[in-house]
Amino acid sequence: MSGDVLTVIPVRGGSTRIDQKNLQEVGDKPLVAHAIADATAADAIERTIVSTDDPKIRAEAQEYGGDAPFERPANLATDEAPTAPVITHTLDWLRDRGETFDIVCLVQATVPFRRPGDIDGAIRQLRDSPGAQSVVTVTEYADPPQWALTETAAGYLTEYYDTGVLWGDIKRSQDLEELTYPNGAVYAAYTDVWREQESFYTKRTVGYQMPPERSLDIDEPWELELARALYQYRQES
């Protein structure tokens, strides 16, 4: 069979900063369950696969309706293993069973405030952008990166980028060019492009902008605490 959009949710058992990060709860369910719910509810998604090396995560994913049909190979589950081979492994596993897809999408479990509409919006942005090969969700910086500082060899602060932006004539953030960063929520590419490049960053990548309040990417313990507090606050408001 030939499908439309495949979503891969990569969730490794190990985590260097937060123990069993993908099983940590935010609100009423673990992070992996938030990702499953988002991908399942997105209209653009044909199939969602959870790729994990951890039997506990696999069981938890299945409990929340996730499809985790295989155990990820050990060589793709180390701290050093990149995400790209994990996606290709999933595509190969499905292709060997007669399933192919036009678009492959990555949804990370560490962005719990992403919505199904963000996934749909990113896929729509990719399809509606002539010549585009991939799409990445982005968010505007809260503080302008042009204000970055570094230290000299003598230990004194100095501007990292253009001289005069922070300590010169331009001081207001609204006078600076608006810049964005990839927020980790959604990545997608045409499958043939992925097969050629194994990257969501191509020469023709477009951005789908998400607001900061939906773009928190949990990597450090304090970010997990913040996510839990935000979730509770929003439930009570």
Structure, explained:
It is a single chain. This protein is of the alpha/beta class. The chain contains six helices and ten strands. It has helices spanning 31-41, 55-63, 84-95, 116-128, 191-197, 221-236; strands spanning 2-10, 25-26, 29-30, 47-51, 100-107, 134-140, 149-151, 157-159, 180-190, 205-209. The protein has a six-stranded mixed β-sheet, sandwiched between helices. A two-stranded antiparallel sheet has the order 2-3. The N and C termini lie far apart (46 Å).
Features:
237 residues, alpha/beta, Spore Coat Polysaccharide Biosynthesis Protein SpsA, Chain A, six-stranded mixed beta sheet, 6 helices, globular
Report Rg.
Answer: 20 Å
Q: How would a textbook summarize the main sheet?
A: 6 strands, mixed
**SS field, number of helical segments:** 6
- DSSP strand content: 15-25%
Oligomer: single chain
Instruction: Give me the secondary-structure category.
Output: alpha/beta
Termini gap: 46 Å
The averaged pLDDT comes out at 92
Instruction: Write down the domain tally.
Output: 2
> SSE order, as H and E?
EEEHEHHEHEEEEHEH
Helical content (DSSP H or I, runs of 4+): 25-40%
Low-confidence stretches: none
CATH homologous superfamily descriptor of the largest domain:
Spore Coat Polysaccharide Biosynthesis Protein SpsA, Chain A
CATH architecture annotation of the largest domain: Alpha-Beta Complex
Question: What is the CATH first-level class name of the largest domain?
Answer: Alpha Beta
Give the spatial strand order of the biggest sheet.
Answer: 4-1-5-9-6-10
**CATH topology heading of the largest domain:** Spore Coat Polysaccharide Biosynthesis Protein SpsA, Chain A
